[in-house]
Design a protein that fits this description.
Blueprint (H helix, E strand, L loop, with lengths): L3 E2 L16 H16 L3 H17 L7 E2 L4 E3 L4 E12 L2 E12 L6 E3 L4 E9 L10 H5 L2 E7 L5 E8 L5 E4 L6 E2 L4 E6 L2 E7 L3 E3 L6 E2 L5 E5 L1
Antiparallel strand pairs: 1-2, 3-16, 4-5, 4-15, 5-13, 6-12, 7-8, 7-11, 8-9, 9-13, 10-12, 14-16
């Protein structure tokens, strides 16, 4: 029987919302109220629909995380678009396994740590906003790379990449922080991608096309 744990304390609400969404939700609700008071039915209903969409986008459900030695969990919700071996990538010298996860606007956009360890470095780079699922997103788009070292001194890098619509990367960790597997580390607003670079002894348990959930889905194991 698999064991699970809570990487973050569960919230006392049935529909948790990520804090970055509060101002946008409040603004959309205010506009909706103004239209309603003015008797503008269609604009009010449109603004109400936008308010509900923003609430759904910034949803931040609590997740139970598998507690099994060596297991790597997904850092993002979305669709796996790449599982491949690599050698001497810009962010990860040497050999390893790369997993790319694309998040549409309908996915939960809160990102989580794929493995427990210490944050060695956080490296932000401004850039462009090409479609996140394309190859140009990796080299040209704005991104934020988090370098993690495990207790076994294995190196992991996971990268928050902005997309065509995404215009804000939020990262709440910094060098020196210790993270638990599945712990919240930030989010990307409105459609994006996360790339995960893992050591060569990582064995994937997922394939291209699979749907995954941040913190809850096992991607594979480090041997």
């Amino acid at each position: 029987m698999n064991n699970f744990n809570w990487p973050d304390p569960p919230r006392a609400t049935a529909f948790p919302i990520a804090r970055p969404g509060y101002p946008l939700i409040a603004a959309a609700a205010f506009v909706t109220a103004v239209f309603a008071l003015l008797g503008l039915t269609i604009p009010a209903l449109t603004a109400l629909a936008i308010t509900f969409f923003i609430c759904a986008f910034f949803r931040d459900p609590d997740r139970l995380v598998p507690d099994e030695p060596g297991k790597v969990v997904s850092p993002a919700d979305g669709k796996v678009i790449k599982v491949e071996n690599f050698e001497n990538e810009e962010l990860y010298p040497g050999k390893g396994v790369k997993i790319s996860i694309f998040m549409s606007v309908f996915n939960v956009h809160v990102n989580r740590a794929p493995f427990a360890g210490k944050v060695v470095e956080v490296r932000y780079r401004p850039g462009k906003f090409f479609v996140a699922s394309g190859d140009r997103a990796v080299t040209d788009n704005e991104h934020n790379a988090i370098f993690l070292e495990t207790e076994e001194e294995k190196q992991i890098c996971f990268v928050q990449i902005a997309g065509l619509v995404a215009r804000r990367i939020i990262c709440r960790v910094q060098a020196g922080d210790k993270l638990g597997r599945g712990q919240r580390i930030g989010m990307i607003c409105f459609g994006s991608r996360v790339d995960l670079y893992l050591p060569p002894d990582f064995v994937p348990e997922i394939k291209k096309g699979d749907r995954v959930q941040a913190g809850a889905s096992v991607l594979g194991a480090i041997q």
